[in-house]
Amino acid sequence: MSEPRHLHRSAELKGATIDASDLGGATVTGSDLRGVTVRESYLDGLRIVGSVLGRIEISSFAGDPAEVVVEGVGVWQLVSDVLDQRHPERVQLRAVRTADDHRAMWATVERLWEELYAEAERLPDDVRRTRVAGEWSLVETVRHLVFAVDGWLGRMLRGTEQAYHPAGIPPTDFPAEHWTTIGLDPAADPTWEEAVEVLRGRQHDVRAELASLTDEQLAESRTIAIAPPVWGEETATVAQCFGVMQREHVDHLRYARRDLATLRGT
Asked: I need a surface site. Which of 42, 167, 236, 238 has the fewest CB within 10 A?
């Protein structure tokens, strides 16, 4: 195995956005990484040794468990337990197995989002459009959930050709040049009320689809390209499709609550 490459490029990286796909196995020494943000990257095996630590924030992909060890102490279970206490819908989501479970989970999703809609209605519009630490604003989060339902219900479960609402927002790694190929409008700028109206409609569609769902149907599979040509053909069970939509709503609700607390200074 070759020796790791030693990097000392702090001056070059300040304020820059770089594609760090070539840093696997590298060692970074003597660098000033204060304020650095790492997005959509593989950090398995990351070690921070003999460094000055202040406030460090970690959000794993969709809140997936990870082995995080600080001074020899594993902390992820503690983090997970606290999140479960703050957001009991996470516990309910992990327990979903049957068609009735899916219906109950979606009822919880809709109730919690209605609570958030009501809370957001009382906020100034500029707050609903404010990003915290570069994350999506509340309006953008709602638009992303529209995209998620369009992909997993419209495309995957129903096989609709033109499934995507123009105001939907795909994940951040979705190339901008392909938005229009699936019917998205890069210039779309809906109001809060318009975005919520669309998402409420999509949530109603999921509820309607779940109404007649049976346990036997959960194991059925669907194969389709959700967003060609960016994402190729993939196969998922009916249970997985509903699970993705539920998880998207649960995770983004947590992010929205976190960011609103920051904006309120709480």
From this structure: 42
